[in-house]
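Task: sequence in, structure out. Protein: Multidrug resistance efflux transporter family protein.
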Amino acid sequence: MRPIILGICAAFFFAFTFVLNRAMELEGGSWIWSASLRFILMVPLLMIIVWARGNVGQVFREIKKAPLDWLKWSIIGFGFFYAPLCFAAAYGPGWLIAGTWQVTIISGSLLAPFFYETVQTKAGPVHIRGKIPYKGLLMSLIILAGVVLMQAEHAAQLSLHEMVLCVVPVLFASFAYPLGNRQMMEICKGRLDAYQRVLGMTLASLPFWLILSLYGLATAGPPSGRQVLQSGLVAVFSGICATILFFAATDLVKGDMRRLAAVEATQSFEVLFAAAGEIAILSSPLPGAISWAGITLVVIGMMLNSYVSNKKTTFKSEGVKA
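Result:
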C-alpha cells in the first residue's frame, strides 16, 4: 500500500500544475515561461536538497557514464511531457487538461512490452519482456470512464478547435512522461534515489528549457514577476514534492509492471484535487450529478486497481526463459 499512498500524495501536489498554469494563462502569461521557468527554478532547489543529503557527486558521475541517454530520455520525460501540458493550458481549463492527462493510466500500461521485468524463480531472478497488465488495464478503464463522466458536462461548452489544441498535446505528453521515467529507471538501475534522479533529469533537460526560453523571450518578451512567483510555486509543489513522491513510489515497484501500472493509476486523483483547487482558487462551479458519478467511478476503479495489482502471482521456473 505504501507505493499507492505515495502516488496519491504525488497526485495532490501535481494538481497544483493544472490550477496554477491555468491561472497564469488567464492573467496573460505565456505558456512558454510557465513551462521553462518551472524546471529552471527547480535546479537550485534540487541542488540544495541533494547536496544536503551528501550525494550530488554521484548524480554527475551517472550522467557522465551515458550523457546522450540522459539528455534524450530527460528531454522526453520532462520536456515533451511538461511543455505540451502548458501549451494546452492556453486552450482549455485545468479540469479538462487534468482529465485528459489521465490517459497516462492507459499509456503506461501499453508501454509494458517495451521493457523487461524481473521475475523470481526457483532458478533465481530472470528478466522477461513485460506484458500488458490486462486486469489492471481494465481497472484503469473504469477510472478513465469516471474521468470522462466528470468532464462530459463541461466539454460541450468548448469548440472543436479548443478541444483539439487542448487534448492532442496532452495525449502526446501522456506517453512521453512514463516512457522517459521508465527508461531512466533502466539506465540508473537503482544506483540513484528519487531525489538524485529528479535532479539528474532536470539538469539533463536544461538545454531544452533554455532553448524554449530564448524562443519565449523573442516572441512573448520576459515573464512578469507574478508569473515567476507562480512558476516558483509550481516548481516546489509539483516539480519537487510531486515528482520526488512519484519517483519514490515507482522505485518501490520497479521490475513489476502490474504494480507499476497501479502506481501510475493513482494519478487519476489529480482530477479530484484539480477540481477542488479550481473551485477554491478560480471560483469554478461545483461538480454536477454526472461529475459526482464520475468521481465515484474513479474511487471504485482505484480500489479495484490496487487490489488487482497486489495479488500474488506465482511463476514456474520451467516456463520462464531469460
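DSSP finds 14 helices and two strands in the chain.
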